[in-house]
Write a structure and sequence with these properties.
The protein is α+β, with helices and mostly antiparallel strands. It is built from 5 helices and 3 strands. Strands 1-2-3 form a 3-stranded mixed beta sheet. It is globular. The N and C termini lie far apart (29 Å).
Length: 109
């Protein structure tokens, strides 16, 4: 359920403890991610997230295996949110995608 006000959204995010920053920290630590972009699609209440995750641990893994790896790393967090949509790339795949779009990989995680 989306929050009706900014105050309610902040309260919901605080009560669940799930924020883009907390998700990013967990993924960086557990998946050796080189780049992560997480967007809160729920208007700030912390219930729905989309993510781009770039990690060398995704090499030679199918999309399903990559999602299972991410979901395993975020098991507790995913249980507390409504929707989670990860897009997983190896560093090489991400570089190719960015080159096709005409932009390079942003620096840092």
């Amino acid at each position: 359920m989306s929050a009706r006000t900014d105050t309610e959204a902040a309260s919901n995010a605080n009560s669940s403890g799930i924020t883009p920053t907390s998700l990013k920290a967990t993924l960086t630590q557990k998946l050796e991610a080189q780049y992560i972009d997480i967007e809160d699609m729920s208007g700030g209440c912390g219930a729905m997230f989309e993510a781009i995750i770039v990690s060398p641990l995704f090499a030679k893994k199918t999309t399903l295996a990559r999602h299972r790896l991410v979901n395993g790393a975020l098991k507790e967090e995913i249980a507390a949110i409504h929707a989670w949509t990860p897009k997983c790339y190896t560093p090489e795949e991400w570089e190719r995608k960015r080159a096709e779009e005409g932009t390079g990989m942003p620096q840092g995680v």
